[in-house]
Amino acid sequence: MNRIKKFGAMLAVGASLAGCMSSPLTYSASSIPVEQGKYSVLAEDVTGTNTQVSWLFFTFGLGGSGQRHALADALEQVPGADALVAMSVDTEFFMLVPFVLPSFYTTRVSGTPVKVNSGN
To answer: Which is deepest, 12, 21, 74, 106, by most CB within 10 Å?
Structure first.
C-alpha cells in the first residue's frame, strides 16, 4: 500500500509540473526579399512543421534551425515554389517533467507558396 501512495504522489507531482505553451514567433512579408507583383502564386496556404527534442538544454534532431526545416517542409509541398509570402511562424513547447524527461519543440511555418518571376 505504501508503494501505491508513493507512486500516486510521484504521478501527481509529475502531472502538476507538466506544461505546454505556444507562442507566435514572427510574421514576415515573405521568406526571401521579393517585390509585390514579381512573383506568381502557386497554391493556397501551406504549412510546414518541424519537431525537435530537447533534454537538459541539449537539442536533438535535425541540425540547425527548426524554422528553416519547417520552411523547407512547406515549400516541398508545392513543386516549383521558391518562397512563401504572408509567412507566419509559431512554436509550441511541451515539457513533461522538467530536467527529467525530454521536452518537445514544434515549429510551424505557414504562408502562400510563390514562384519568383525570372527577369524581374
So the answer is: 74
Residue at 14 is within a domain: no
The answer to the question of residue 26 being in a domain is yes
Please report, for the domain that includes residue 40, its CATH number.
3.30.110
CA atoms of 40 and 36, how far apart (whole Å): 10
pLDDT tens column, 74-97: 999 999 999 998 888 888 888 776
Query: What's the predicted TM-score (pTM) here?
Result: 0.70
Q: Is residue 106 within 8 Å of 92, Cβ to Cβ? A: yes
Among 2-6, 13-17, 71-75, which is the least confidently predicted range? 13-17
Total domains, the chain: 1
